[in-house]
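Reply to dn_fold:

You asked what the input looked like. This is it:
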Amino acid sequence: MYKLTINFPSMKRLYFFFLLFSFAANAQRTNIIYIMSDDHDADAISAYNKKFIKTPHIDRLAREGMIFTNAFVGNSICSPARATLLTGQHSHKNAVKDNRTAFDTSKITLPKILNEAGYQTAIVGKWHLHSYPSHFSHWKVLPGQGLYHNPRFVTMQHDTVVVKGYATDVITDEALAWMNGRDVTKPFMLLVHHKAPHRNWMPTASFLRQTIRKFYPEPPTLFADMNNHGKAWQGQKMTILYDMLLASDLKIDPQYLSDIPDLKPSQNDVAVYNSSF
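and this is what came back:
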């Protein structure tokens, strides 16, 4: 009997994740597939809210497995959450307190323990820990935040390769390729870390066509007064009214905004827009 305890991060900030379990045919030891999406709000998962989007495969996992309805997190931003996943430690113990601190890969980590127990371990996709992965049997990760289209990957040989396609599809294909080529006599752990749907939101053309004419209701907090909230709430940069950028976020061509003083995009906003197409 295996007992699993999960400290699940808040849906407000960083990511939605889930575990799939199967059993190796010979060893009868638990295989682990951990799939992470980045900045995935609960309202963008139809198992929680059916008003905005349909996510039938995630909904099936919720229906046939488990769904979290109450969760807490100590440090929900990107790098610290990933360091906690690998070490099982809070930020003050694993020393990754923000997105700028490099992770010390010499620490005792989940892949290191599983490797010693005879597991094959792999991570594919977003790493974002400012160091190379360690103690994995296989890794192929995005540098930094990664790109949505034709993403670059850093390999175990420390080479950088470009893989044509959309990041979600490419990461999934890379993960499946590793699974299909692994030693089936050994148990495994596979971490599949997606870039999507992290800002600067770039869907595939097919999904863009599905949603471009869809009406989304105005959120009740659009004009909310934040003065009575805590500093973290007041300082966040994710409000639609004040923080959504016309070029990089909403994909409006900067040439149509450059002559409008109040709407003129910054150089960084233009650069992000140009890198998206």
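The longest helix spans residues 167-181.
Hope that clears it up.
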